[in-house]
C-alpha cells in the first residue's frame, strides 16, 4: 500500500486529493493535512465582504466529505519535510502540528511515498508596517482573503454606510498593500462590489472611492495585461479597466508600493521614486504572499530548506529559475510537471510552487524598490495543476515508477475568469474574461503574446449569472456530490 | 437622472484618455434578452478555452 500525503486543502490540494482518492481506491492511502476544518470557495468571499453572502454560504466542513471519499483527514499544519527520512528511518516523512480543538500543539510524523505540497500562501501582512503582524491582519484595514476576514470587512463596511446616511462623507481605498502583491483581481472585484452596494444603499454621492495598486498600468492583473478583440480592434485590458473605473467614477493610483499603514492613512512610493500619502475611512488592501515557512531536513538532520524551497518559501519544481532578465524570458521557463528537481516523489501545485519569474515586466523605482505584481496561480490553473499532479502520482503508484508524468504548463493553459462588479440577479454585472495562454508566448503569438481568438472579455449581467452558477457548481464539486468529476476545474 | 460616464472624466486627469460607454452600451449590459444571448455565447467560448487547457 502506498501513501500519498497532500499538504493543504485549498482549491489545488482538494482537487488533487479527491481525484487521487478516486483513482487509487481503497488499496492505497490518501492523507490530507490542512489547518482549517472548513473548505472555502475563496472567489465568493467578495460577496461576503459586502454582506451579500454569509460565511456559511462559502464554506463547508471538510471532515464528512473526506470521510465519504475515504481520505484520512488531519487538521494540522505542516512544519517540516524530511525527504530522505531520518537516521532511524529510511522512509521520507513530514512533521505536522495539530490545530484541531483539544489537540493543539501536538505533533506527529507522517511517512509518505509521495507528497504534494499545496499549502497555498502565507498572508504576509507583516511585510508592510501597519498592515498587520506576521500573518495576522492589522487593526487599520480589512481583508477578503479568508471567509472570517470577509465577514469582518462587511461589518466595517456597514458602519461606513450608516455614517454616510447620517451625512458623514467617507473615503474608500481598495487595492494592494505592497509593491510585490498578487491577486489584483480580488481587489478589483471588491472595489466594484463596494461601489455597487454604495449605489444600492443610496449613498454613492457621499463616497470617494479610490484604487491603489502596484500594477504599472491599470488592467495588468499580474499577467502583464491582455488584449481582447472588440469591435474589430485588439483592445488592451488597460482601456478595458480604465473605461470601467471612469464609468463608475473610481479614481486610481498605480505603480504604488504601500510602505506603511497608519490609522486612516497609507504611505506609498511610486515607480517614479516619489512618495505620497492617501487618507481613508475604509480600506481593503491585499497583503503580499509568501511560502508558509516549511523547513526541509536531510537524513542527518542538516537543514536543506534552500535546496527544496526558493528564497520566497515556495517549493522549487521543474521550472527554469535561471532565465535572468525580462528579455530572456520564454514560455518554456514555466514548469509543466511540478516535480521537485531533487526529490522525485515531491510535487507542488497551486500557489505553493515557486514560479520562475513574474509574468508582468519587473520594474523598480529609482530608489531600488521593486514594484510589480507577482504571478497569480489561483483559480482554474490551480485546479488543473492539482489534477495533473494527482494523475502523475497515481500513474506512478499504479503503473510503476517510470510512468510518464502528466503536464499542465501555464504556458499552454488558458484561464476563464469572472470578476464580479456587483451582485444582483437582474442588476448585477461582472467582467467575464478568458486568457489563452496564461503565460504570454511572444514567439508563438508575436505582439500580444496570446491568441486573441481565445482571449476575450466583456462586462454584463451574463457574466454575473456565470459567476453565480460557478459558485454553486464548484461548491457542489468540492463536496463530491453526484457527477462531481464531470465538472471541469 | 444618473450622470453620463463621460461626466466623470477630469481634464488631463488619470482618465482623460480613456473611452466611456454610452447609454446604449450600458443598457445592453443589463438587457435580459441580449444578456441571455451573451450568456450562451460566453459559456461556449469559455468551454472551448477550458477544453483547450485540459
TrEMBL record, chain A:
GO-annotated molecular function: oxidoreductase activity
Return the protein name: Sulfide: quinone oxidoreductase
The UniProt record lists the FAD/NAD(P)-binding domain at 3-149
List the source organism: Sulfurimonas denitrificans (strain ATCC 33889 / DSM 1251) (Thiomicrospira denitrificans (strain ATCC 33889 / DSM 1251))
Q: Which domain of life is it from?
A: Bacteria
* Gene3D superfamilies reported in the protein's UniProt record: 3.50.50.100
**Which InterPro entries does the protein's record reference?**
FAD/NAD-bd_sf, FAD/NAD-binding_dom, SQRD
Ranked from the top, the taxonomy reads: Bacteria, Pseudomonadati, Campylobacterota, Epsilonproteobacteria, Campylobacterales
